[in-house]
Amino acid sequence: MEQILQQIDTHKEEITAFSAQTPEQVEEFRIKYLGTKGLVKAIMGEMRNVPNERKKEFGQVLNDFKLFVEEKYESLRQSNTREAKGTSAQIDWSLPGDPITAGTRHPLNIVRNQIVSIFKRLGFAVAEGPEIEDDWHNFGAMNLPEDHPARDMQDTFYISQNPSWLLRTHTSSVQARVMETQKPPIRVICPGRVYRNETISARAHCFFHQVEGLYVDENVSFADLKQTLYFFVQEMFGNDVKVRFRPSYFPFTEPSAEMDISCLICKGKGCNICKHTGWVEILGSGMVHPNVLDNFGIDSNKYTGFAFGMGVERITQLKYQVNDLRLYSQNDVRFLKQFTGVV
């Protein structure tokens, strides 16, 4: 063991005196002392020949020696790196600088901001609320009692029961919270992420984004609703887009209607996006049900209102002709780079 300790002292003197002028010499030092077949590993192998009662003592010596060599290597490496950077002869100052990659907003954020901007011009304020919601604000207040069959269409992720807490299925819960704290006139849009227990495919996902709108005041009519949505479509897609309303059913509105626009991808001729009908549904709407107003102490005999809701993914799909809903959440840089020039 004493012989090995003498060898270590000798190697320490050699290492202390070692100097490297180039990165190649630094690499030679690493291979000689710290490599797989280097000196440190070879000396470590002598541990098996040390008596058991002295293994702890010898192990400490070997560990100190290894740290000594590693510190020397790191010192040599940093010294050569500084010298390489500081040598102006190795730098061609005439070369162009490194390009700075331009970032961009996510396409869903781009379209969301456009939607918000359009409705702001009509006097709508923006309201937001929690994504984790209680049963009352998400369902009960929206005229969806526990035994209502329409709940089956909004199967969601429950966090707890008794009391029930869940991931919200629509941003109507934000409308509920607005009506809870404000009195008419109310004119808000509610953008945000929502969740539903659906199979992930090119046309559906377990989470998506909505923008819902609510307008409550005296003498609000279905004509006000239609003109508001006509204006939105023309501002978002242009004046040449055709629009139609179809009767529908929603528990929180009566009467209710779904709004379609002529398919922007096939120009109304028929394709797989519009299911060969020439029309694509973009939102649901209707007059606020009197029960919803009464739930928040708003006199349904004095006030009326309209509400609507649209999926941001669907609007983005039509505007930028995105054929797979999953692309929005896959973080594929090739997809995201296509929107670099969009403001």
General description of the model:
- This protein is an alpha+beta fold.
- The protein folds into two domains: 2-87; 107-339, Bira Bifunctional Protein, Domain 2 (BirA Bifunctional Protein, domain 2).
- It is built from eleven helices and ten strands.
- It has helices spanning 2-17, 23-34, 39-44, 55-86, 107-120, 135-138, 172-181, 222-237, 290-295, 312-320, 333-336; strands at 125-126, 132-134, 158-160, 165-167, 186-195, 207-217, 243-250, 253-262, 279-288, 304-311.
- The strands form two sheets. The protein has a seven-stranded mixed β-sheet, with helices on both faces. A three-stranded antiparallel β-sheet has the order 2-4-3.
- Helix 1 (2-17) packs parallel to helix 4 (55-86), helix 2 (23-34) runs antiparallel to helix 4 and helix 5 (107-120) packs across helix 10 (312-320).
- The longest helix is centred in the first third of the chain and has 32 residues, at 55-86.
- The chain is elongated.
- It starts with a helix and ends in a 7-residue tail after the last helix.
- The mean pLDDT is 87.
- One of its GO terms (molecular function) is phenylalanine-tRNA ligase activity.
- It catalyses: tRNA(Phe) + L-phenylalanine + ATP = L-phenylalanyl-tRNA(Phe) + AMP + diphosphate + H(+).
- Its EC number is 6.1.1.20.
- Mg(2+) binds at residue 254.
- InterPro entries: aa-tRNA-synth_II (IPR006195), aa-tRNA-synth_II/BPL/LPL (IPR045864), Phe-tRNA-synth_IIc_asu (IPR004529), Phe-tRNA_ligase_II_N (IPR004188), Phe_tRNA_ligase_alpha1_bac (IPR022911), Phenylalanyl-tRNA_Synthase (IPR002319), tRNA-bd_arm (IPR010978).
